[in-house]
Every structure is written in structure tokens, then in C-alpha cells.
């Protein structure tokens, strides 16, 4: 009998606790070696009532409809599955049970109100955070307890002196007025019969802290700092107790003096009572009744993805002690997180931690941080060793400076803790070129550092915003490397909330004031197209048709706006456009002054978005709508050719980006494609294969060259090490992707521009080409249900391997050049089908399992 399927998962979540939908869809991975699923049976055990669906014919184990009655708030069910495969008449064993539990699905479930500090505060200052707490008594033993919690600002909760959960910067950043995320925690083992205490640390975060550039803005969502918590306890005797935030709670200052996402955090341990969240708290007279606020419970939403967590700890690789006693630490990797230190010293000793991505002349280079001071401070209490890290801030850094350390700095006294949304890693790539491998690692690290609840542009300076254009170009790479479907689905919901009534998609989401260039919001190509292109990418990569359906109205509104702006000409040649942002020719102070006509870019994206909207409508079964936008896409493509393609087949903007976008988006007639591809290759070689593209052209150029028959030139681009190129930063010691091709110049000096980030994932979008072309894994139907394995060697690379955890299981390919051609090992997930296309060989259909192939054998077989 076959082994059992993997445990059932729910929606795009690894943990079904507190799910926000009443009928969660189910997925499972087939037993190893099962082949193709023919049927399945589900068993639901809810409230002691067990029901089975019986055998259901179906080959797809991904996002299967909920088979029972909808869950009510707080209701849980355990789910098992067994499957029938083509090779067996008997079902597999049942999977290990998985539990799903609904959160609070209805506004009427909430009794909690926001509670916070009652004292007056200056809204224009760095306000000292409060802590809030509540003592309560339980008269019966505890069978089950759930804490539903969120905040205006940031929170960390404790019960009876123990931290609840391990997430950071909760509840994250959403468009708070419309969508405030709450999380559900199982706190059964935190409670005891008798006296209990619940408390929470509070921080400003994005809600009322200073965020944004040019000095930033405070209080964008409110001036209060408040906890919203509802502790629901079920006792062994069946009775319930609810402890919700209300007027019975009290507030007091804590040991955090100031905290901010950009500024860092100051903690005075002399002011900390370690028993503050227990019934034995000292200084009870310092706690005063809270003030209460208002919150529409209809805006409280459950999460769709994992929270931000610490996912790795890294010790410093070198520690340099300066003559004045300062310590300069190098962690060997540009990361996003914070330091945890263990230290002992006299009371009042002040230890200062500063952070930066690079050093210049042996000192932290803080100019790229602009207004982000990125400084944490600890004041010791003098009562013994303390292990401390800040709670409500994050920094982007490779280097840190420590001032004021008492005595010797022990080897294990400092560790960097890496934080990001705790997505499941799903993609890997490696090849024979070590520089390319480091480039790929840099892409991974930049994604980790910028997927902090929302997809940000950079993690270190006074910005850290959800730029729509950056994720639009990077989404294919992101969705290979990590299971980011839930996180990006949630963020796209915020994009829809922020979309203007006329269809305009903001430059970044959530929207904050941005100065005259970004406010008022104007429609911009490539950035606004996140509304159409990113839902399509997620549908293709994760096979979630309902995700595509949810975001279709947003994409349609965006396309209809472009149609109105273009008018009968079908040319979008007006308005504020960023064009091929940050191509290497742009001056430091004007990154939109690119070689490529910005309106060529705008019209090309107009055509591409309309085409995707038509495809989306077709997948969703909207046949008439699909026909409408298919005709519009054809009209825009024809208008593009009339305006931007010359009679010679060349383009009005004779630039690599112009040819790349026209070729990749299918905007050149078949008769002219080869000439355009040849001209693109000429332009690349004329500049010795140095990069000449920006945010728009860079993700497209290698595919455009490859599809035009110039794979060798694409590899020349990939393997170039002179500036500007993908590998130039690697040769300069980069461990993440830079914002500018020359953020650090060849002479070792910083780029003088005000935008000089050393951690920006957008230009790392080439990794998608590495996965598909160099590695050789590419989906051919949504969710990788069918996969093409087509490695295309070049650039002196003699072997490569790529692996992706698809919704169905592991897909992998490894290949190596041999004297006789190529050998390849291919893994097709159970439930899927593969097609192998090796150089010089006819395509070969393969089923689930492992396949070892040799081109010399295939050639003989073909002959």
C-alpha cells in the first residue's frame, strides 16, 4: 500500500489557527511515488461529528473546495485525506490529521475596544510608549484559551510573565482605516486557575510613528497607541470567561523611552520590572486606568500569511576594536534585523548600537540612510547580566558599531537576528559559476530583507515603502524563491483599497504623503500595472484562480483608465512617467531621465496589461469581456508599431530597453522580430555587454535576447563583471542587490545620489531567467501542473541545478555538459506531467518520478 499523503493545508497558510474564511480550501501533496491521483476522500471531524465525503473523482489536490458546512467563528475541525492513484485499486492510508480553526468571522464577535495611555502627549514629538495590563482571576481550570489581538501601532503580549507568540512588528502594515489585521494565539498553557495577568508592550510602528522621506510624517493613521485584545477562555466545566480590553485595564510607562522604525529604540533597564505582566508586579501605584477608543470591528481581518519572525541568527565574522574603545562589527552579510546582546555592567552604563550597510575609511557610512538614524541604546540596571534586543524597530545593515561596552566584548556577546515575513522557502539555484551563485544568493537576501509584511523597495533608509513597480517586475522571481502567495494576495487587497476612483494605482501601497513628485498620485506605467500583471503571475505560479478573480476588478479599472487616457489614438503619451527608471545613463539627481522614450514604455505596458486582462477574463470564464480586451490589446499593439517601430524595423528609441520591451511584450510584427532581436544584440555588444537598462528593461532583456536567437549575448550580459553589470557588485563584495548599478563606484566611493540603497531587489529580477533558462524549470500550466524542463547552456557554465517546491511537490532538474553532449536528471512531482527539451534532442514527455537522461542516448533513440 502506498504511503500516506502529506497533511492537509488550508488556503496559503501553514497554520490553520485563526483562519479568516468559513470555507477554507484544502491542499495536500500526494504520497511519494503515487503518480497521478484519480480520486480522493476527505474526512472532517468537527465538534465530535465525523463525516466523510466518499470517493470523489478528481486529479487535482491543490486548493480543493471545502467539503462540509461553513465553519462558524471559533469553530475547529480536523481534516484527513486519502487518495486513489492510477496504479492502485485500494486507497492510500489516511493523512495525519490537520486542524483548522476559524477566527472571529463576524463583527459582532468582538467586544474589545482600543485601550491606551491616559496621559496627555505631544503628537509632534517622540512619545514614550506605554504598557497596558489587566489582572484577572479564573475560578475554574482551563480547557482552551485563545487570544485575538491587534493594535493601533505595534504590540507584544505577555501572560503571566511569558511572551505570547514569536512574531515581530505585529500586526504589520495595512491600510489601517479599512483593514487592520488581528492574529489568533493558542494561550491555553499560559493560564492557570486563580490569579492571572495579561499585558502588552506598545510601539508606534507605521500607525503613528515617523515614516516617509524628506523628514517623514507622523500620525498618519491616528495619534493613539492602543491595544485591542480579546482573551476567550473555555473551562473544563464548559463555562467561558472573556477578558477583553476595556476600562478595567491599566497603563504605565515602561522601560522603552523612545522607539521608531527609522530611529531605533532606547531601553532603560533601570525602569524595567521583569514581573510587570504577572500578579506579582511591583509599583502597582504607577498603573492608572486606560483611556478607551473606538474601532469598527468590521475592519478587523485575519491574516493570509505568516507573520514577521526571526528566521536566522548570525554572529559577527570580524570585530575591530578602535583606539577609543568602540567596536566595529562585520556580519559578512547585508541583512535586515537587529542585534541581540548579552552584557553586564554598572548601573547607568549606556551602550549604543549603530548600523549601516557599508563602511567608508573604516567607519560606518550612514549617508545612504538619510533621515534614518538606526541607533539602539541600552542603559544597564547594574543588577546582573542582561540579554536584550529592541522590540519595535528593524535595521538594514551588514556592519554595526558598539559604543560604551563595559569590559571585553566576548565572542558570543552579540548576534544579528534576521527578520522577515516567515514564508516557506520554495526555490533554489546553483551552477558552475561561483559569481553567478553569489548573485543568486544576493537576490534571495534582498527578497528576505524587503518582504517585511509588505514588499518594500529598501529596508534601511527613511523610506521602506511598498513600491508597486518594484514588485511588479520581481514577482516572478519572488514566487519561485518563496511561497509568497498569501502575503502578496493580502498586499494586493490594500492596492485595491488605495486605488483611486478613476482607476489610478498609487506609486506605493500603503499610500503616505510623498512630496511633489509623488503627491498627488498620478498614473504611471510599469508601477500601476501591478494591478494586472502580479495577480496573473501569482495565478500562474500557485494555481489559485480565486486569487485572480478577487483582483480582476482592480486590474480592469486600471486598464479602463489607460484606455481613457490614451483615447482613440491608443497611445499613452501623456502624463508623468518614470520610464526605464534608473538606467545607468541617468544622472544621480534625475533617475527618470532615461535613454528610452518614457511614452514608448507607457504604451507598451498599456498593451501588455490589456493582453493580461484578456487572458485573465478568459481563465475566469468571462468570454465577452475577454473578447473586448483582446480586441483592445490588438489595437494598442498596432498603434505602438505605427508610432515606435520604423519602416526599417528599428525603433524610434534605439535602446536596449526599447527592443527588449517590444520583443518581450509581442509588439513587433513577426517579419520584423529577427531584425529587432539582431539590433538588440548589436547594442549590447557595442557596449561590451555592459548593462544599459533600468527597472523596466532589466527583467526583460535576457529573455528578449534568448527568444531572438541570441542566447550567447544574454550569457555575455550575465557574466560581465565590469560596471555596470549584474556581477560588478559581486566583485565589489555585495551580498544583496543594489538599487543603482554603481551604488559603490569602482574607486570604492559611494554613489553621490540621494537614492543609494545597497538592498533593492528590483534589478535582481534576472533570477527568474536563471531559474527558467540556465536551470531549466518553467511551468506550462498554472501551479506547475505541467512543467517544461529546458536548460539552455552557455556562458561557460558547465553544470546547473534548480529546484522548486511546487504546490504539488518537488520539481527539480540538474544538468551537466559532457564530451558527448549533456546529462540531465529531472524530477517531476506526483500528480504532474513533464516535458523535457534537451539541446539537439526531440521533446520527450515524462511522468511523475525521477528521470535520468543523456543526450547521446536520446539522439540514438531519435535516429
Topology:
Blueprint: E1 9-10, E2 16-19, E3 26-27, E4 37-46, E5 49-52, E6 56-57, E7 76-85, E8 98-102, E9 115-116, E10 130-138, E11 142-152, E12 154-159, E13 162-163, E14 167-168, E15 180-181, E16 183-186, E17 194-203, H1 205-208, E18 226-235, E19 240-244, E20 250-253, E21 256-260, E22 264-268, E23 288-289, E24 291-292, E25 300-301, E26 308-314, E27 318-321, E28 327-343, E29 350-356, E30 359-360, E31 363-364, E32 375-379, E33 386-388, E34 395-403, E35 414-421, E36 427-431, H2 434-450, E37 451-452, E38 454-455, H3 468-481, H4 485-498, H5 530-542, H6 545-566, H7 598-620, H8 623-644, H9 656-664, H10 670-686, H11 698-707, H12 711-719, H13 728-731, H14 767-775, E39 777-779, E40 786-789, E41 799-806, E42 809-818, E43 821-828, E44 833-836, E45 844-846, E46 849-854, H15 855-862
Parallel strand pairs: 2-8, 15-25, 22-32, 40-44
Antiparallel strand pairs: 1-3, 4-5, 4-6, 4-7, 7-8, 9-18, 9-24, 10-17, 10-20, 11-16, 11-18, 12-13, 12-17, 14-26, 18-19, 20-23, 21-22, 26-35, 27-28, 28-33, 28-34, 28-35, 29-32, 29-34, 30-31, 36-41, 37-38, 39-40, 41-42, 42-43, 43-46, 44-45
Helix pairs in contact: 3-5, 3-14, 4-5, 4-6, 5-6, 6-7, 7-8, 9-10, 9-11, 11-12
For the termini, the CA-CA separation is 40 Å
Q: What is the average of the pLDDT values? A: 96
How many beta-strand segments?
46
Spatial shape: globular
Poorly predicted runs: none
Oligomer: single chain
Please work out how many helical segments DSSP would assign: 15
* Major sheet: 11 strands, mixed
Computed over alpha carbons, the radius of gyration is 28 Å
**% residues in beta strands:** 25-35%
Helix content: 10-25%
The chain-level structural class is alpha+beta
Amino acid at each position: 500500500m502506498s504511503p500516506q499523503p502529506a497533511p492537509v493545508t488550508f488556503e496559503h497558510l501553514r497554520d490553520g489557527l485563526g483562519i479568516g474564511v468559513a470555507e477554507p480550501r484544502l491542499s495536500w501533496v500526494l504520497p511519494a511515488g503515487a503518480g497521478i491521483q484519480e480520486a480522493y476522500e476527505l474526512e472532517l471531524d468537527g465538534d465530535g461529528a465525523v463525516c466523510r465525503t466518499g470517493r470523489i473523482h478528481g486529479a487535482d489536490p491543490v486548493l480543493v473546495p471545502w467539503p462540509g458546512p461553513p465553519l462558524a467563528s471559533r469553530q475547529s475541525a480536523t481534516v484527513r485525506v486519502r487518495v486513489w492513484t492510477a496504479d492502485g485499486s485500494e486507497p492510500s492510508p489516511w493523512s495525519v490529521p490537520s486542524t483548522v480553526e476559524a477566527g472571529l468571522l463576524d463583527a459582532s464577535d468582538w467586544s474589545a475596544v482600543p485601550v491606551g495611555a491616559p496621559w496627555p502627549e505631544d503628537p509632534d514629538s517622540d512619545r514614550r510608549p506605554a504598557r497596558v495590563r489587566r489582572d484577572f482571576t479564573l475560578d475554574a481550570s482551563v480547557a482552551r484559551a485563545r487570544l485575538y489581538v491587534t493594535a493601533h501601532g505595534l504590540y507584544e503580549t505577555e501572560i503571566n510573565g511569558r511572551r505570547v507568540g514569536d512574531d515581530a512588528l505585529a500586526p504589520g502594515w495595512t491600510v489601517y482605516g479599512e483593514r487592520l489585521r488581528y492574529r489568533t494565539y493558542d494561550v491555553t498553557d499560559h493560564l492557570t486557575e486563580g490569579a492571572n495577568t495579561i499585558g502588552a508592550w506598545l510601539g508606534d510602528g507605521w500607525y503613528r510613528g515617523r515614516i516617509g522621506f524628506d523628514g517623514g510624517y507622523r500620525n498618519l493613521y491616528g495619534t493613539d497607541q492602543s491595544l485591542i485584545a480579546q482573551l476567550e477562555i473555555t473551562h473544563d466545566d464548559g463555562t467561558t470567561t472573556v477578558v477583553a480590553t476595556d476600562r478595567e485595564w491599566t497603563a504605565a510607562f515602561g522601560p522603552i523611552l523612545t522607539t521608531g522604525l527609522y530611529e531605533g529604540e532606547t531601553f532603560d533597564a533601570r525602569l524595567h520590572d521583569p514581573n510587570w505582566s504577572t500578579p506579582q508586579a511591583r509599583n502597582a501605584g504607577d498603573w492608572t486606568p486606560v483611556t478607551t477608543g473606538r474601532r469598527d470591528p468590521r475592519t478587523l481581518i485575519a491574516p493570509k500569511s505568516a507573520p514577521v519572525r526571526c528566521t536566522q541568527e548570525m554572529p559577527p565574522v570580524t570585530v575591530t576594536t578602535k583606539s577609543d574603545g568602540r567596536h566595529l562589527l562585520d556580519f559578512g552579510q547585508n541583512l535586515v534585523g537587529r542585534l541581540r546582546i548579552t552584557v553586564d555592567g554598572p548601573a547607568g552604563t549606556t551602550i549604543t548600537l549603530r548600523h549601516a550597510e557599508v563602511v567608508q575609511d573604516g567607519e560606518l557610512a550612514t549617508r545612504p540612510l538619510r533621515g534614518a538614524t538606526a541607533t539602539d541604546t541600552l542603559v544597564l540596571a547594574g543588577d546582573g547580566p542582561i540579554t536584550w534586543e529592541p522590540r519595535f524597530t528593524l535595521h538594514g545593515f551588514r556592519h554595526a558599531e558598539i559604543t560604551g561596552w563595559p569590559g571585553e566584548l566576548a565572542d558570543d556577546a552579540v548576534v544579528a537576528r534576521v527578520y522577515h515575513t516567515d514564508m516557506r522557502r520554495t526555490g533554489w539555484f546553483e551552477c558552475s559559476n561561483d559569481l553567478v551563485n553569489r548573485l543568486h544568493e544576493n537576490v534571495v537576501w534582498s527578497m528576505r530583507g524587503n518582504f517585511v509584511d509588505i514588499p518594500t523597495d529598501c529596508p534601511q533608509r527613511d523610506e521602506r515603502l511598498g513600491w508597486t513597480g518594484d514588485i511588479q517586475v520581481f514577482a516572478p522571481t519572488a514566487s519561485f524563491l518563496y511561497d509568497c502567495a498569501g502575503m502578496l494576495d493580502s498586499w494586493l487587497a490594500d492596492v485595491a483599497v488605495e486605488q483611486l476612483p478613476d482607476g489610478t494605482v498609487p506609486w506605493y501601497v500603503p499610500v503616505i504623503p510623498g512630496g511633489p513628485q509623488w503627491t498627488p498620485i498620478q498614473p504611471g506605467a510599469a508601477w500601476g500595472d501591478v494591478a494586472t500583471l502580479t495577480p496573473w503571475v501569482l495565478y500562474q505560479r500557485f494555481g489559485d484562480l480565486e486569487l485572480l478573480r478577487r483582483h480582476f476588478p482592480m486590474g480592469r479599472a486600471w486598464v479602463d483608465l489607460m484606455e481613457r487616457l490614451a483615447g482613440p489614438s491608443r497611445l499613452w503619451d501623456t502624463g508623468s512617467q518614470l520610464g526605464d527608471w534608473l538606467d545607468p545613463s541617468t544622472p544621480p539627481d534625475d533617475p527618470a531621465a532615461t535613454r528610452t522614450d518614457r511614452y514608448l514604455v507607457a504604451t507598451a505596458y498599456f498593451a501588455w496589461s490589456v493582453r493580461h486582462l484578456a487572458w485573465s477574463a478568459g481563465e475566469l470564464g468571462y468570454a465577452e469581456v475577454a473578447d473586448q480586451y483582446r480586441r483592445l490589446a490588438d489595437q494598442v499593439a498596432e498603434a505602438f508599431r505605427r508610432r515606435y517601430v520604423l519602416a526599417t524595423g528599428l525603433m524610434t528609441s534605439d535602446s536596449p530597453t526599447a527592443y527588449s520591451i517590444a520583443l518581450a511584450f509581442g509588439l513587433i510584427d513577426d517579419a520584423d522580430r529577427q531584425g529587432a532581436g539582431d539590433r538588440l544584440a548589436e547594442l549590447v555588444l557595442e557596449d561590451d555587454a555592459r548593462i544599459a537598462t533600468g527597472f523596466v528593461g532589466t527583467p526583460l532583456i535576457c529573455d528578449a535576447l534568448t527568444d531572438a536567437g541570441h542566447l550567447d549575448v544574454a550569457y555575455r550580459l550575465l557574466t560581465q563583471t565590469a560596471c555596470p553589470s549584474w556581477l560588478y557588485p559581486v566583485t565589489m563584495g555585495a551580498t544583496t542587490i543594489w538599487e543603482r548599478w554603481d551604488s559603490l563606484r569602482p574607486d570604492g566611493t559611494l554613489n553621490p545620489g540621494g537614492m543609494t540603497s545597497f538592498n533593492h531587489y528590483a534589478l535582481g529580477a534576472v533570477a527568474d531567467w536563471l531559474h527558467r533558462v540556465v536551470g531549466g524549470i518553467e511551468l506550462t500550466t498554472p501551479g506547475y501542473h505541467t512543467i517544461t524542463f529546458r536548460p539552455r547552456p552557455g556562458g561557460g557554465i558547465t553544470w546547473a541545478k534548480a529546484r522548486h517546491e511546487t504546490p504539488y511537490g518537488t520539481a527539480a532538474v540538474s544538468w551537466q555538459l559532457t564530451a558527448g553532449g549533456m546529462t540531465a536528471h529531472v524530477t517531476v512531482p506526483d500528480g504532474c506531467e513533464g516535458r523535457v527539451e534537451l539541446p539537439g534532442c526531440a521533446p520527450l514527455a515524462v511522468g511523475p518520478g525521477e528521470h535520468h537522461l543523456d543526450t547521446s542516448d536520446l539522439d540514438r533513440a531519435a535516429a
